[in-house]
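I am still getting used to backbone structure tokens and would like to learn alongside you. Would you supply a protein for us yourself, any chain you care to pick? Start from the sequence, derive the backbone structure tokens from it, and show both lines together. Go ahead whenever you are ready, and we will take it from there.
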Amino acid sequence: MRRACAVLLAALVALGLLSAPAAAGPPARARAKHPLVVTGYALPGLKASVLRRDRHALDIVGADGLSVKADGSGVTSSNAALRRLKRLAHRRGLRAELLVNNYAGSLGDFDPVRVSRLLGSKAHRGAAVRRLVRTVRREKWDGVTVDLEAMRRRDRDGLVAFVRELRAALPRRVELSMDLGARTSIRQYRDAGFDLRRLARHVDRMVLMTYDQHGPGWSGPGPIGAIPWQRRTMKVLLGRVPRARVDLGIAGYGYTWPTSGTGHTVSPRRARAMVEADGATAVWHPKIGEWSTELSDGTVMWWSDARSYRRRLAVARDLRVHGVALWVLGTADPLP
């Protein structure tokens, strides 16, 4: 979902947020607790203590773990870490959704080649659909999230076919959602392989990833996802997709921009510690809804924390959308 995926994995390890699998527990159905449905994305090694801490504010746990195969011939198998995460979610009375993406560790980014190989072949799409349906039925997942990125205009028809075939094959009780990178025009969506009107016929929910507006490696310093930009990108999507089927994506992390070398992802906790250790001053930007600072060595940092999260809950309520989706549990601040 995200350019932040690889660096977040490293950050989670460094912060001690990855742990060994825990014992299984009985599943439970989700409870309707919030005016907004709240999804928290999670990496497979998430500590059980994070879900104990945040369960009061969650409805769905999105488990990031399945990938498109390098040759596009299908998707990878589930594993013990993913099944553990599903059990942890069910134990806390939360829904568990399985996320499939085209992220390639060898590239450190989403792979446009493998996704085109998948979407451009009826046989490859069929193999992926069969694997996903078998996994969902056998492991009792509550939903599937399709997070395919770095696509091109030529992938549009294949993507529509894939979600149509997947929706038809999944049990009706299983929700099918899709993650989309935030864009400011319909043309940009088309160029990126998304036909919003046709996709909306087959997916139950669309999550607009309104983050990574700025980041090291693709832009100069700036907000992770400024509120005015988020509103602008949501307006474009809501022109094609009913608001009752749209979630607002929320960042739970930040980035650094050093004067030399490559920046990296930081958790809100780490950002505050860096500010304190440096003797710098953190500045809250009310209109943007994020923090920034400049350290004594010239490093610029922007991050989104619990205060930022609360502001975006208000934005989502104002827009009257279905819910919000946070990237990523464990790195983000505790949920209010």
